[in-house]
UniProtKB/TrEMBL annotation:
Protein name: histidine kinase
UniProt keyword terms in alphabetical order: Kinase, Membrane, Phosphoprotein, Transferase, Transmembrane, Transmembrane helix, Two-component regulatory system
Covered residues, full protein: 217 to 474 of 474
Lineage: Bacteria, Pseudomonadati, Bacteroidota, Sphingobacteriia, Sphingobacteriales
Statement: the UniProt record of this protein carries the keyword Ribosomal protein: no
Record carries keyword Ion transport: no
Length: 258
């Protein structure tokens, strides 16, 4: 009997090891594919503004020789806009150094979360090229949270940016904030394109972007939510998503107050 049990155990262990191996290979393959599409995206995204600025500089030189101030200013404006775009993209990639977002180097300062949200709203609306309304649901409780302000600000910006990017021309964002059992619960909902529930887990993975066959050709690297999740995790919090295709999406963050 002992021998039979031992054999069964060995066989099960072998099957388990084999399944684990397959799973690991599958995961590695997936990651390699995601990485490849990231590098492709990235190369393309970085090349475009650089080429535009180079062309604009040539034009400035040309119009400068003719003393055409108006044209020179126009191309200066274009250069400025493209460089700003480039700087934003670099900032996104730098943020991704999420291994750096560890509990060790996380700041723990008392933060006025409402103020942080209000700043986030201002920045999001300023940069948006759409008609964006961001409203708070009900009256906001004045909540103080012990957290890392810079990272939390980035988290809020990422959620607002996504809500705007993955929506039509009229964007309605609703922000909810409450305290429950020592946790701060923050929700950001939009009336955008929505996410198929089969991707709810994947969207938090580095480099993952929902494949939509260019239905909504939106630029991005698939880094934002991986960063958001990492920051929330380092604050001992959780994040979850709910969404209905064609209706909208809500992200719900829950972070301990202390
Ligand atoms: P990026 O926006 O650069 O692609 P993210 O990590 O921020 O990267 O998001 C991952 C993917 O999740 C996006 O490509 C998009 O498909 C989906 N997504 C994120 N936020 C939303 C949202 N508010 N509405 C619809 N889809 C979203």
């Amino acid at each position: 009997v002992v021998q039979v049990l031992l054999s069964i155990f060995l066989i099960l262990a072998l099957i388990g090891a084999f399944i684990y191996l397959l799973w690991t290979i599958n995961r590695q393959n997936k990651l390699a594919l995601l990485r490849k599409s990231f590098v492709n995206n990235m190369t393309h995204e970085l090349k475009t503004p650089v080429a535009t600025v180079m062309a604009a500089l040539e034009s400035i030189q040309r119009y400068g020789a003719r003393d055409d101030k108006e044209k020179m200013e126009q191309y200066l404006r274009i250069s400025h806009r493209e460089l700003e775009h480039l700087a934003n993209m670099i900032e996104k990639v730098l943020q991704l150094d999420i291994d750096e977002v560890t509990g060790v180097n996380l700041r723990r300062d008392p933060i006025d979360i409402v103020q942080l949200l209000e700043e986030g709203v201002e920045i999001a609306q300023l940069g948006a090229k759409k008609n964006v309304s961001i409203d708070f649901v009900g009256s906001l409780p004045r909540l103080t949270l012990v957290a890392d302000a810079a990272h939390l600000k980035n988290v809020i910006s990422n959620l607002f940016d996504n809500a705007i990017k993955y929506s039509g021309d009229t964007v309605k964002i609703q922000v909810g904030l409450k305290e429950e059992a020592g946790m701060v619960i923050l929700s950001v909902s939009d009336n955008g394109h929505g996410i198929d529930p089969i991707y709810f887990k994947d969207i938090f993975e580095v480099f993952f972007r929902v494949p939509n066959g260019n239905l909504h050709p939106v630029k991005g690297f698939g880094l934002g939510l991986a960063y958001v999740k990492q920051v929330v995790k380092q604050h001992r919090g959780t994040i979850r998503v709910d969404s209905v295709l064609g209706k909208g999406t809500v992200f719900i963050l829950s972070i301990p107050k202390q």
